[in-house]
Specification:
alpha+beta; 301 residues; zinc-finger; 2 domains; Helicase, Ruva Protein, domain 3; 9 helices; DNA repair; N-terminal domain of MutM-like DNA repair proteins; lyase; 5-stranded antiparallel sheet; metal-binding; FPG_N; 4-stranded antiparallel sheet; 11 strands; 21% strand
Length: 301
Amino acid sequence: MRYHHLHAGKRYREGMPELPEVEALAAYLRERAVGRAVQRFEVASFSALKTYDPAPTALAGMPLATAGRHGKFLDVGLGDDLHLIVHLARAGWLHYRDSFKSPAPLKPGSGPIAVRVRLDDGSGFDLTEAGTQKSLAVYLVRDPAEVPGVARLGPDALAVSRDEFAERIRGRNGQVKGVLVDQEVLAGIGNAYSDEILHAAKLSPFALTGKLTDEQIDALYAAMREIETDAVERSVGQKAAELKGEKRAGMRVHARTGLPCPVCGDTVREVSFADKSLQYCATCQTGGKPLADRRLSKLVR
C-alpha cells in the first residue's frame, strides 16, 4: 500500500497549510480523484464534522466533480450541488491512499483519523489531526458561503489588484504582519509566507499599515505576488510526499532562526508569542535594529 502525505511537516514550524499548499492539494485531487465516485464517507471524529444536513450517508455514489480552494479552505465539489469544505488548521493533514488495508468502516476515535473518503476505485483519502488541540473543521454544505470562515474571507491574495491591495491593507489599522494574515483582509496568506513577503519587501513586521508609503505598498504587493506565485509553481505538480520539503526549501527567513540571511548574511532573528513566532532579518528589514522578543521581555522584567 502506497501512502501519500499532503501536509505541512509535523515538526516544521510553518503550521497550517497556506494558499500554495492548499492549491497544490486541490490540484492533486483534480488529477487523482475527480471523476471517481464516493463509495463511502466515514466519520470517526464527530467533533471535526461541523454540519449535520446533509448526512454523510447521502454522499454514497456521488461523483467528485471539482477540487479548488477558498483562501486556505479546500473545496471538493460533490455531484451537482454539494461541497466538502475542509480547513486543515495547524495539525490537520490529508493522506491519499491508493488502497485501504481493511474494508471495515472506521470506528469512532480511530486515532488521528477524523474522516475517511473511500472512492469507487479502491483509493481515497483520510483527513487526520495530530495532537490534542482539535481544530480540524469539515463541512458538508450546498453553498461554500454557508461556512462562516469562507463567508468572511477577503479577496484572494493572488486575485487582488495593486490598488485594491493598497486599499485593504491601509483600511485595517495595525502592524503589517497581523494585517497580512487577517483572512478578512486577504485570503490565503499565513504565518510562514507573511514572513517571506515582509523579508522580500524589506519591511519590519511591526510597521504600521497607516504609515506605509506608496513605495512600500508597491514593494509589499510585488513581494506578495512573487512569493505566492513562486510557491504555487513549485508546489503544484510535486509528488505529494515532496510537498513538505518543497515548502521548506523555499523559505529564506521563516523557521530559519539562527541561520544566515541568504540576502545579506546577517543572522535570522525571531520574535516569540504565546503560540507562534515570526522570523525576520534585522539588516534587511529593520535598519539593523533587533525587535523586542515579547516572550523574553516578559521573563526579564
